[in-house]
Specification:
Layout: E1 2-17, E2 20-36, E3 40-44, H1 51-59, E4 66-71, E5 81-84, H2 98-102, H3 104-109, H4 114-127, H5 144-156, E6 162-166, H6 174-191, E7 194-199, H7 202-208, E8 211-216, E9 219-225, H8 235-242, H9 260-265
Parallel strand pairs: 3-7, 3-8, 5-6, 6-7
Antiparallel strand pairs: 1-2, 1-4, 8-9
Helix pairs in contact: 4-5
Length: about 270
């Protein structure tokens, strides 16, 4: 069932400056897309294809030049759509505890008191396979994989119906990518949360998603169910498919500290 409808979406940015004539660079052109409730959708595209621009529009961080984004008949807003960012460390205030940052959506988007917020944060930490005692740690005291899990916990805090993962796994090694994708798949099964995985890596989509769309030059050029036999037809999409990395390792029980030599054997 479709719960977010993107219709005739167009967006661009002004370019140029002091020594050159300013002009408009078109990023998205006539984009139509349906996101289905509880589905993990992969959004593929090369650099400059418009993936991150679409994410900002879905979040409501920017307004489209033309077209519309409708969430169950209403404009989307933060309580329904959350995001996990690529750089986990910069997404957290270095001077505040992990628990304080995870509770931020609860402070702004719910009426929970301090005790209820703390209890919810402890529950979220355990759900993303961190320890309740991590609630008082600073970001610098966690590993990259742990920080990305904390980012997922923050995105889940208010119970959104869609979580956007904007290249959120690209800074992690292959084993950590597998661990987090398996964690998110469990979240989707248990809560019905939908995910939009924005990436340039088809192997991540193949492991996690039920459907994949491809952007090229701001236009939707492919929309397919994810299968082992799927074949793209658009030249830009085929280039992404041909560049796919080897199959992802099975690593549900591998810990964050696996070294590179061990990873090569998987």
């Amino acid at each position: 069932m479709s719960f977010i409808q993107v219709r005739d979406l167009e967006h661009g940015y002004s370019a140029g400056g002091l020594f050159s004539k300013r002009h408009r660079v078109q990023v998205l052109s006539g984009l139509n897309l349906d996101l289905h409730e509880g589905q993990s959708l992969g959004l593929l595209g090369g650099s400059g294809s418009g993936k991150s621009t679409l994410a900002r529009l879905l979040m409501g961080l920017e307004s489209a030049d033309r077209g519309s984004i409708v969430f169950k008949g209403q404009p989307p807003f933060l309580q329904r759509v959350q995001m996990v960012f690529q750089d986990a460390l910069s997404a957290f205030n270095p001077q505040r505890s992990i628990g304080w940052s995870i509770a931020e959506p609860l402070r702004h988007l719910s009426d929970m008191d301090a005790a209820a917020c703390r209890a919810r944060v402890e529950q979220l930490l355990q759900q993303v396979q961190l320890e309740a005692r991590d609630i008082d740690k600073l970001p610098a005291q966690l590993s990259g994989g742990q920080l990305q899990r904390a980012g997922i916990a923050r995105a889940m805090a208010i119970g959104p119906q869609l979580i956007i993962l904007d290249e959120a796994l690209s800074n992690l090694d292959r084993v950590l990518q597998v661990q987090i994708l398996d964690l998110l798949a469990q979240v989707r099964r248990e809560s019905g949360t939908g995910f939009l995985l924005i990436t340039h890596d088809l192997s991540l989509v193949q492991r996690f998603c039920q459907r994949v769309v491809v952007l090229a030059e701001g236009k939707l050029v492919e929309d397919l169910p994810v299968t082992a036999q799927m074949r793209f037809t658009h030249p830009a999409a085929r280039t992404l498919q041909e560049a796919v990395l080897p199959a992802m390792p099975r690593a549900r029980s591998v810990r964050d500290h696996v070294d590179a030599r061990t990873l090569e054997k998987l």
